[in-house]
Amino acid sequence: MTKLLVATMAVALALTGCSTASRDDAAHGKPLVVTTFTVLADIAANVAGDRLAVESITKSGAEIHGYEPTPGDVRRAAGAALVVKNGLGLDAWFDRFTDDLHAPHVVASDGITPIPIASDAYAGKPNPHAWMSPLNVVVYADNLAAAFTRIDPAGAAVFRANAEAYKQRLRAVAHDLVDSLHALPANERALVTCEGAFSYLTRDAGLAERYIWPVNAEQQAVPRQVAATIDFVRTERVPAVFCESTVSDKAMRRVAAASGARFGGILYVDSLSRADGPVPTYLDLIRHDSRTIVAGLTGKAVQ
Ligand SMILES: [Zn+2]
Q1: Distance from the CA of 3 to the center of ligand 1, in angstroms?
Q2: CA of 197 to the centre of ligand 1 (A)
Q3: Which N-terminal residues, if any, form the signal peptide (predicted)?
Q4: What average pLDDT does the segment 64-88 reach?
Q5: CA of residue 297 to ligand 1 center, whole Å
Q6: What is the pLDDT of residues 174-210, one digit of tens each?
Q7: pTM of the predicted model as reported, rounded to 2 decimal places
Q8: Same domain, yes or no, for 263 and 206?
Q9: What are the φ/ψ torsions at residue 142 (nearest 5 degrees)?
Protein backbone atom coordinates (compact mmCIF):
# COMPACT_ATOMS: atom_id res chain seq x y z
CA MET A 1 0.00 0.00 0.00
CA THR A 2 2.71 2.45 1.01
CA LYS A 3 4.79 1.47 -2.03
CA LEU A 4 1.80 2.10 -4.30
CA LEU A 5 1.18 5.49 -2.71
CA VAL A 6 4.82 6.53 -3.18
CA ALA A 7 4.75 5.38 -6.82
CA THR A 8 1.51 7.31 -7.46
CA MET A 9 2.98 10.46 -5.93
CA ALA A 10 6.14 10.09 -8.02
CA VAL A 11 4.08 9.85 -11.21
CA ALA A 12 1.95 12.82 -10.15
CA LEU A 13 5.07 14.88 -9.46
CA ALA A 14 6.63 13.90 -12.79
CA LEU A 15 3.47 15.01 -14.58
CA THR A 16 3.07 18.36 -12.87
CA GLY A 17 6.14 20.08 -14.36
CA CYS A 18 8.68 22.36 -12.80
CA SER A 19 6.72 25.26 -11.29
CA THR A 20 4.62 22.90 -9.21
CA ALA A 21 7.73 20.94 -8.34
CA SER A 22 9.45 24.09 -7.09
CA ARG A 23 6.39 25.00 -5.03
CA ASP A 24 6.72 21.52 -3.61
CA ASP A 25 10.39 22.28 -2.82
CA ALA A 26 9.31 25.42 -1.00
CA ALA A 27 6.73 23.42 0.93
CA HIS A 28 9.52 21.03 1.94
CA GLY A 29 11.60 23.73 3.52
CA LYS A 30 13.76 25.16 0.73
CA PRO A 31 13.83 28.96 0.96
CA LEU A 32 11.68 30.48 -1.80
CA VAL A 33 13.16 33.04 -4.20
CA VAL A 34 10.70 34.90 -6.45
CA THR A 35 11.79 36.84 -9.53
CA THR A 36 9.75 39.35 -11.53
CA PHE A 37 10.08 37.53 -14.89
CA THR A 38 10.99 34.16 -16.39
CA VAL A 39 14.41 35.10 -17.83
CA LEU A 40 15.55 36.20 -14.38
CA ALA A 41 14.13 33.00 -12.81
CA ASP A 42 16.26 30.83 -15.09
CA ILE A 43 19.42 32.86 -14.40
CA ALA A 44 18.69 32.70 -10.64
CA ALA A 45 18.01 28.94 -10.77
CA ASN A 46 21.42 28.37 -12.35
CA VAL A 47 23.11 30.09 -9.39
CA ALA A 48 20.76 28.62 -6.74
CA GLY A 49 21.22 25.01 -7.86
CA ASP A 50 19.05 22.75 -5.71
CA ARG A 51 19.43 24.69 -2.45
CA LEU A 52 16.64 27.22 -3.18
CA ALA A 53 13.23 27.07 -4.88
CA VAL A 54 13.01 29.73 -7.62
CA GLU A 55 9.75 30.97 -9.17
CA SER A 56 8.80 33.79 -11.55
CA ILE A 57 5.88 36.10 -10.72
CA THR A 58 5.03 36.64 -14.42
CA LYS A 59 4.37 33.61 -16.63
CA SER A 60 6.11 32.84 -19.92
CA GLY A 61 4.75 35.02 -22.73
CA ALA A 62 3.59 37.77 -20.34
CA GLU A 63 4.09 41.48 -21.05
CA ILE A 64 6.44 42.49 -18.25
CA HIS A 65 6.85 46.27 -18.52
CA GLY A 66 3.35 47.27 -17.43
CA TYR A 67 2.45 44.17 -15.43
CA GLU A 68 -0.13 44.53 -12.63
CA PRO A 69 0.61 42.15 -9.74
CA THR A 70 -2.38 40.11 -8.54
CA PRO A 71 -3.22 39.54 -4.85
CA GLY A 72 -1.81 36.01 -5.36
CA ASP A 73 1.52 37.45 -6.60
CA VAL A 74 1.73 39.66 -3.53
CA ARG A 75 1.00 36.69 -1.23
CA ARG A 76 3.74 34.71 -2.97
CA ALA A 77 6.24 37.54 -2.54
CA ALA A 78 5.23 37.88 1.12
CA GLY A 79 6.20 34.23 1.66
CA ALA A 80 9.53 34.57 -0.15
CA ALA A 81 12.95 34.60 1.48
CA LEU A 82 14.13 36.91 -1.32
CA VAL A 83 12.62 38.90 -4.21
CA VAL A 84 14.88 39.30 -7.28
CA LYS A 85 14.22 42.30 -9.52
CA ASN A 86 15.94 43.37 -12.72
CA GLY A 87 15.95 47.08 -11.86
CA LEU A 88 16.61 49.88 -14.41
CA GLY A 89 12.87 50.68 -14.31
CA LEU A 90 11.77 47.33 -15.80
CA ASP A 91 9.90 46.00 -12.80
CA ALA A 92 9.06 49.19 -10.90
CA TRP A 93 5.50 47.76 -10.72
CA PHE A 94 6.71 45.53 -7.92
CA ASP A 95 8.47 48.19 -5.84
CA ARG A 96 5.51 49.36 -3.81
CA PHE A 97 4.64 45.78 -2.85
CA THR A 98 8.15 44.86 -1.77
CA ASP A 99 8.38 48.18 0.10
CA ASP A 100 5.08 47.48 1.91
CA LEU A 101 6.02 43.90 2.69
CA HIS A 102 9.58 44.77 3.69
CA ALA A 103 10.54 41.68 1.69
CA PRO A 104 14.32 41.32 1.34
CA HIS A 105 15.19 42.01 -2.28
CA VAL A 106 18.14 42.25 -4.65
CA VAL A 107 18.46 44.23 -7.88
CA ALA A 108 20.17 41.82 -10.27
CA SER A 109 21.51 44.52 -12.62
CA ASP A 110 23.33 46.50 -9.88
CA GLY A 111 26.77 47.53 -11.12
CA ILE A 112 26.23 47.20 -14.88
CA THR A 113 26.74 50.27 -17.07
CA PRO A 114 23.30 51.25 -18.42
CA ILE A 115 22.77 52.38 -22.02
CA PRO A 116 20.41 55.38 -22.14
CA ILE A 117 17.27 55.15 -24.31
CA ALA A 118 17.75 57.36 -27.36
CA SER A 119 14.28 58.54 -28.31
CA ASP A 120 10.69 59.47 -27.49
CA ALA A 121 9.16 59.79 -24.04
CA TYR A 122 11.81 57.56 -22.43
CA ALA A 123 14.83 59.45 -23.83
CA GLY A 124 17.71 59.49 -21.34
CA LYS A 125 16.26 56.82 -19.04
CA PRO A 126 18.33 53.63 -18.74
CA ASN A 127 17.41 50.88 -21.20
CA PRO A 128 16.18 48.11 -18.88
CA HIS A 129 17.09 45.14 -21.15
CA ALA A 130 20.61 44.76 -19.74
CA TRP A 131 20.36 40.93 -19.79
CA MET A 132 20.53 41.02 -23.60
CA SER A 133 24.31 41.26 -23.13
CA PRO A 134 25.48 37.91 -21.68
CA LEU A 135 28.47 39.79 -20.23
CA ASN A 136 26.07 41.86 -18.11
CA VAL A 137 24.53 38.60 -16.89
CA VAL A 138 27.99 37.71 -15.51
CA VAL A 139 27.39 40.67 -13.14
CA TYR A 140 23.83 39.40 -12.43
CA ALA A 141 25.28 35.99 -11.45
CA ASP A 142 27.70 37.57 -8.95
CA ASN A 143 24.92 39.73 -7.45
CA LEU A 144 22.68 36.67 -7.10
CA ALA A 145 25.40 34.52 -5.48
CA ALA A 146 25.98 37.31 -2.90
CA ALA A 147 22.24 37.74 -2.22
CA PHE A 148 21.63 33.99 -1.89
CA THR A 149 24.52 33.76 0.58
CA ARG A 150 22.78 36.37 2.75
CA ILE A 151 19.63 34.22 3.01
CA ASP A 152 21.43 30.85 3.12
CA PRO A 153 24.98 31.38 4.48
CA ALA A 154 25.69 27.63 4.60
CA GLY A 155 25.30 27.54 0.81
CA ALA A 156 27.97 30.18 0.14
CA ALA A 157 30.48 27.80 -1.50
CA VAL A 158 27.77 26.13 -3.63
CA PHE A 159 26.41 29.48 -4.89
CA ARG A 160 29.94 30.68 -5.67
CA ALA A 161 30.77 27.47 -7.60
CA ASN A 162 27.43 27.51 -9.47
CA ALA A 163 27.94 31.18 -10.41
CA GLU A 164 31.48 30.51 -11.67
CA ALA A 165 30.32 27.55 -13.81
CA TYR A 166 27.42 29.58 -15.21
CA LYS A 167 29.69 32.56 -15.93
CA GLN A 168 31.88 30.32 -18.10
CA ARG A 169 28.83 29.31 -20.14
CA LEU A 170 27.75 32.99 -20.38
CA ARG A 171 31.17 33.99 -21.71
CA ALA A 172 31.08 31.17 -24.27
CA VAL A 173 27.61 32.25 -25.49
CA ALA A 174 28.72 35.92 -25.60
CA HIS A 175 31.71 34.92 -27.71
CA ASP A 176 29.60 32.85 -30.15
CA LEU A 177 27.03 35.66 -30.44
CA VAL A 178 29.62 38.28 -31.38
CA ASP A 179 31.37 35.82 -33.70
CA SER A 180 28.26 34.89 -35.70
CA LEU A 181 26.99 38.48 -36.02
CA HIS A 182 30.44 39.81 -36.94
CA ALA A 183 30.39 37.51 -39.95
CA LEU A 184 27.50 39.49 -41.50
CA PRO A 185 28.41 41.62 -44.57
CA ALA A 186 28.46 45.41 -44.07
CA ASN A 187 25.07 46.01 -45.75
CA GLU A 188 23.37 43.49 -43.44
CA ARG A 189 24.62 44.89 -40.15
CA ALA A 190 21.40 46.50 -38.91
CA LEU A 191 18.86 45.05 -36.49
CA VAL A 192 15.31 46.41 -36.85
CA THR A 193 12.86 45.28 -34.13
CA CYS A 194 9.49 46.27 -32.63
CA GLU A 195 10.76 47.28 -29.17
CA GLY A 196 14.14 48.94 -28.58
CA ALA A 197 15.21 45.96 -26.52
CA PHE A 198 18.46 45.14 -28.32
CA SER A 199 20.70 48.10 -27.47
CA TYR A 200 23.05 45.94 -25.35
CA LEU A 201 23.18 43.11 -27.90
CA THR A 202 23.75 45.40 -30.89
CA ARG A 203 26.49 47.24 -28.96
CA ASP A 204 28.26 43.93 -28.23
CA ALA A 205 27.88 42.71 -31.82
CA GLY A 206 28.61 46.02 -33.59
CA LEU A 207 25.23 46.29 -35.36
CA ALA A 208 23.16 49.40 -36.02
CA GLU A 209 19.91 49.35 -34.03
CA ARG A 210 16.50 50.64 -35.08
CA TYR A 211 13.07 50.01 -33.54
CA ILE A 212 9.45 51.12 -33.93
CA TRP A 213 8.94 52.06 -30.26
CA PRO A 214 11.53 52.38 -27.45
CA VAL A 215 9.80 50.50 -24.56
CA ASN A 216 6.63 48.36 -24.55
CA ALA A 217 3.88 50.64 -23.26
CA GLU A 218 0.28 51.52 -24.07
CA GLN A 219 1.25 53.83 -26.95
CA GLN A 220 2.92 51.45 -29.38
CA ALA A 221 3.51 51.83 -33.09
CA VAL A 222 2.10 55.31 -33.61
CA PRO A 223 2.06 56.16 -37.37
CA ARG A 224 5.05 58.52 -37.06
CA GLN A 225 7.19 55.71 -35.58
CA VAL A 226 6.11 53.22 -38.25
CA ALA A 227 6.82 55.72 -41.06
CA ALA A 228 10.29 56.51 -39.68
CA THR A 229 11.11 52.79 -39.49
CA ILE A 230 9.96 52.22 -43.10
CA ASP A 231 12.16 55.16 -44.18
CA PHE A 232 15.19 53.72 -42.41
CA VAL A 233 14.72 50.21 -43.83
CA ARG A 234 14.31 51.59 -47.38
CA THR A 235 17.21 54.05 -47.18
CA GLU A 236 19.62 51.55 -45.61
CA ARG A 237 18.31 48.67 -47.76
CA VAL A 238 17.96 46.50 -44.64
CA PRO A 239 17.17 42.98 -45.91
CA ALA A 240 15.05 41.78 -42.96
CA VAL A 241 13.11 43.07 -39.93
CA PHE A 242 12.08 41.29 -36.71
CA CYS A 243 9.61 41.47 -33.83
CA GLU A 244 9.58 40.18 -30.23
CA SER A 245 7.54 37.30 -28.85
CA THR A 246 5.59 39.28 -26.22
CA VAL A 247 4.07 41.91 -28.57
CA SER A 248 1.98 41.94 -31.76
CA ASP A 249 4.07 41.79 -34.96
CA LYS A 250 1.37 43.56 -37.02
CA ALA A 251 3.17 46.91 -37.25
CA MET A 252 6.45 45.26 -38.25
CA ARG A 253 4.71 43.21 -40.92
CA ARG A 254 3.44 46.57 -42.29
CA VAL A 255 7.03 47.86 -42.27
CA ALA A 256 8.16 44.75 -44.17
CA ALA A 257 5.36 45.06 -46.75
CA ALA A 258 5.94 48.78 -47.32
CA SER A 259 9.75 48.58 -47.52
CA GLY A 260 10.21 45.28 -49.37
CA ALA A 261 12.26 43.78 -46.49
CA ARG A 262 11.71 40.18 -45.37
CA PHE A 263 9.97 39.53 -42.07
CA GLY A 264 12.92 37.75 -40.43
CA GLY A 265 11.13 36.12 -37.52
CA ILE A 266 10.33 36.33 -33.84
CA LEU A 267 13.00 37.21 -31.28
CA TYR A 268 12.81 36.50 -27.55
CA VAL A 269 13.72 39.21 -25.03
CA ASP A 270 11.26 39.80 -22.19
CA SER A 271 10.18 36.20 -21.67
CA LEU A 272 11.35 32.63 -22.12
CA SER A 273 9.10 30.22 -24.01
CA ARG A 274 7.39 27.38 -22.19
CA ALA A 275 9.59 24.38 -21.40
CA ASP A 276 8.66 22.64 -24.68
CA GLY A 277 9.14 25.80 -26.80
CA PRO A 278 12.23 27.16 -28.62
CA VAL A 279 13.81 29.05 -25.67
CA PRO A 280 13.24 27.30 -22.33
CA THR A 281 16.42 28.87 -20.87
CA TYR A 282 18.24 32.20 -21.07
CA LEU A 283 21.24 30.66 -22.90
CA ASP A 284 18.78 29.18 -25.45
CA LEU A 285 17.24 32.65 -25.84
CA ILE A 286 20.57 34.24 -26.82
CA ARG A 287 21.46 31.36 -29.16
CA HIS A 288 17.98 31.41 -30.76
CA ASP A 289 18.04 35.18 -31.33
CA SER A 290 21.53 35.16 -32.79
CA ARG A 291 20.60 32.33 -35.22
CA THR A 292 17.31 34.03 -36.18
CA ILE A 293 19.03 37.38 -36.81
CA VAL A 294 21.76 35.85 -39.00
CA ALA A 295 19.29 33.63 -40.90
CA GLY A 296 16.86 36.54 -41.42
CA LEU A 297 19.45 39.05 -42.60
CA THR A 298 21.33 36.67 -44.90
CA GLY A 299 18.20 34.85 -46.13
CA LYS A 300 19.97 31.55 -45.42
CA ALA A 301 18.92 28.96 -42.89
CA VAL A 302 21.51 28.69 -40.11
CA GLN A 303 22.08 25.52 -38.06
ZN1 LIG B 1 11.06 44.79 -23.12
Answers
A1: 49
A2: 5
A3: 1-21
A4: 92
A5: 22
A6: 999 999 998 888 878 999 999 999 999 999 999 999 9
A7: 0.89
A8: yes
A9: -65, -45
